[in-house]
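pasting for the record
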Amino acid sequence: STIARETDAGVYLHVGPEIGVASTKAFTGQVLVLAMMAIQLGRARGLIDDTKMAKYVADLAKIPDQIRTVLSQTDVVYDLCRAFRFASGFLYLGRGYNFPVALEGALKLKEISYIHAEGYAAAEMKHGPIALIDKFMPVVVIAPHSDPTYMKVISNLEEVLARGGCVIAVTEEGNDDLQEKCEAVLKVPVTSEFLTPLLTVVPLQLMSYYIADLRKCNVDQPRNLAKSVTVE
């Protein structure tokens, strides 16, 4: 690529060719590489000891199998999407490491299904997005139980429910706090906090794919989008 030729230093993702215009594995590949760089820098600066290093490396090695576990829930995600494909808009909320996941989930949905979607930091929900919430607005809340801000995310979730919103939650296996509160709960395996985006993003990408497919949209070549951007 042009970037690979022009850069002074680079790391290849080794995720294989990305066929669809809307990138999925390129996102997870970049997150993984940046996580590996962060671990190495932390080790080099003396901020990560041998015990933590070993744990982080072990958790990284488990990620492929954990993603396969998430992908085994495709039937659950598909059934969920059959109902929500008729929505005219979605809101995605996350905190900390999972705020960018909310942005990614919203981006994928709008790119390939043509449904308006917005990703927000959950803490900013009261600054505008809360006015949009009603029973016809699905709100996807990314709420891993191990997240230090979990209770704050639950507070945001409760505010959505109090206004008649319909909540789809993404949380970790073993957490049953949300089963009775939410319209749907999608679960991912437990991992280190900074690696959770690699798992929580997968059900959101699956949702985008299935909703687009059910709406008869071209998943690989969305309208108005190009695989490479040649103009500034």
